[in-house]
Amino acid sequence: FVERYTPAVREFLRLNRGDVDDGELDDLTQDVFVKLVEVLRQERYDPRKAKFRTYLSTLMRNLLVDRWRERRREPSPELRREGASGTESEAVDATADPRASVDAAWRVAVRRAAIRHVLTVSMLASESKAIYSAYALRGEDIGTVATRFGVTRNTVSKIKMRVDRMVAAVEESYLE
Fold this sequence. Notes:
elongated
């Protein structure tokens, strides 16, 4: 379970907390799974009320909101050195809504994790992976990609459709 969901959880956390280093990202990811184990042990998750993905994204959102609130309460290192409370400098942040785009960010995180999975773990030929990356991910012109790889435009389109189906299948497994 952890192996399956870690890429999507990390990507979700990275999207919502872009200022984190890998160490903090590892800690946040671990916190998500620890919290999830607590919830499952206490039988607080009810699949009749919500899909698992909804519950997991809510759990992550709440964890991030809690972290956001903790940071908001802590004075910055500069203010701590000066002995100030930090409330004045953080008044602008107090109005920000950390929940605004959490669900959309989860879907983006799942999509990125699924693409990464397909491009690194699948049995696709390396040329197909390169063609997909150039055309679908970097947005290069289909004709330019076809010429560079010595294939037809139709082949580029077929590769994109095939990889998109693979990505969708992996995404669906995360979102079940």
